[in-house]
Amino acid sequence: MKKLQKYDSKELALRSSKFSKISPESLLKSKVSSEDFYMEDESKEHLGFFTKVETRTTLTIPIDQEFHSPSYYRHVVAAINDLTEEDKIVFEINSDGGSAAGLVALLSAIERSPAISIAVINGMAASAASILALNCDVCLLTDNAAMMCHNASFSTGGKSFDVASHVSFERKRSDDLMRRTYEYFLEEHEIEDLLKGIEFWFDAEEISSRLAMRDEIREIIMSEEEEGEDTQEQITSPELEVEEAKAEEEVKPKKGKKVVNKD
């Protein structure tokens, strides 16, 4: 911590007002470093106090148009990369979907970032927009929220062998993304239907119900994993050595009597 300086009440008020005038736009461009103040009554009749001002960034990104190519999100990705675990990324979503490549650019950015990601579905979250929303740490809904889920579509061209190879690759890649995204939000048979080309439409109430179901299943799985780790830790070293010794004894070949054939 840097050396604390002493300010009178007027100076302290002036310096504090400097921070209160910071606009949300300026927070998106750069961070304001924390600063410490110490105020002491010159008369020594009252106790002084310390004040620490800290700034956390909330990066709000409107997703209210079709998804474009990855280069379109270059500056957004750079801004996300600058965030820390104390910051937030908020996607304001009302989109019919679009380019899978642009979607992947955003998914990779929030996956790498330590900041918490929040999706706010204000209207339609269709196709790629639904995938972005469900891959955020938190998904919030308005009464007007809606969602459409379906499998990816793409086109290709070229020699027949190359086309077949590309289609096979994209299908596997797409299927993996769909299963990861819609796991526990859709039931297993619904995911299979989605991969076959069936579309699913949900209003705000249905989205909320499915998100609650997904969170509940995830909590159960996490609880079971933690219990398994606790059980493993309860096995002490001597007990483990005994178990290993027993296992080694079982695999040792048993000695038998040597039989000599006499002519």
What are the salient characteristics of this protein?
single chain, 263 residues, alpha/beta, 2-enoyl-CoA Hydratase, Chain A, domain 1, 2 domains, 6-stranded mixed beta sheet, 3-stranded mixed beta sheet, 9 strands
What does this structure look like?
The chain has about 260 residues and is an alpha/beta fold. The chain folds into two domains: about 1-55, no CATH class; about 55-220, Alpha-Beta Complex (2-enoyl-CoA Hydratase, Chain A, domain 1), CATH 3.90.226.10. It contains nine helices and nine strands. The longest helix has about 30 residues, at about 205-235. The chain is extended and about 90 Å long. It starts with 5 loop residues before the first strand and ends in a 12-residue tail after the last helix.
Give me a quick take on this structure.
The protein has helices at 9-20, 24-29, 74-81, 100-112, 128-134, 160-182, 188-195, 204-234, 237-251; strands at 6-7, 35-39, 49-53, 58-63, 88-95, 116-126, 138-141, 146-149, 200-203.
The CATH architecture name of the largest domain reads Alpha-Beta Complex
In CATH, the topology of the largest domain is named 2-enoyl-CoA Hydratase, Chain A, domain 1
Task: Provide the β-strand percentage band.
Answer: 15-25%
Rough shape? extended
CATH top level label of the largest domain: Alpha Beta
Helix content: 40-55%
Calculate the mean pLDDT score and round it: 81
CATH superfamily of the largest domain: 2-enoyl-CoA Hydratase, Chain A, domain 1
The total number of structural domains is: 2
Distance between the termini: 96 Å
